[in-house]
What does this fold into?
Amino acid sequence: MGCCRRNFNTDEFKAWLSTLHEEQPGTEFCIKEDDQKETYNYLKDNLFGQIVVWNNSVVEEIITDCTNNEQIFYLHYEMEDRNQIKELIKSFKRRMFCVCQKEYEVSEDDGERNILLCCSSGLTTAMFAQMLQDFSNNNHLPYHFSATSIYDDDTLSKEYDLVLMAPQVQHYTKSMAAKYHKRFLIMNPVDFAQYNCNNIVSRVQEVFL
It folds into this structure.
């Protein structure tokens, strides 16, 4: 991982963040700095977006709806994989400046599915797994969601019908699929960042139905 960080051009990355708003008329932009981080702020209509670059190479993407002060988008990840980071920033840009997001239709299903969510620590996905479980229960779907870290070998070695990968750890998918011989699906960054249970469950159903 250290090698990836050394090869990552942080200055180039920050310069790119300073241009995200340029093709979006009416967007207010500013940068705030302190001893621990740099925060890139974007205000467009009723949405306030922030990309926080911490000195320890962690990045946070946050979008807040100013009408009710509700956080509607959140991602955090380490600056490790250049291509992955580009995709995650593009997801922030699409949600910030192009609000239209397709809503998929959830189908009926009587097949039991054991589904595991994975991220770096398992903390974020544990909360999301409970939300997906509640959504499935409310829609009478016999799905069972749980969550773990990508480093939890014992849990990953158990039987699951599908493993859902958080977008910020998607670059581990190929090696993990080869090691654990399971079906893996990378969650859409916008759906994951917005905890869009409807779309995640619909994508799960595309695998099985």
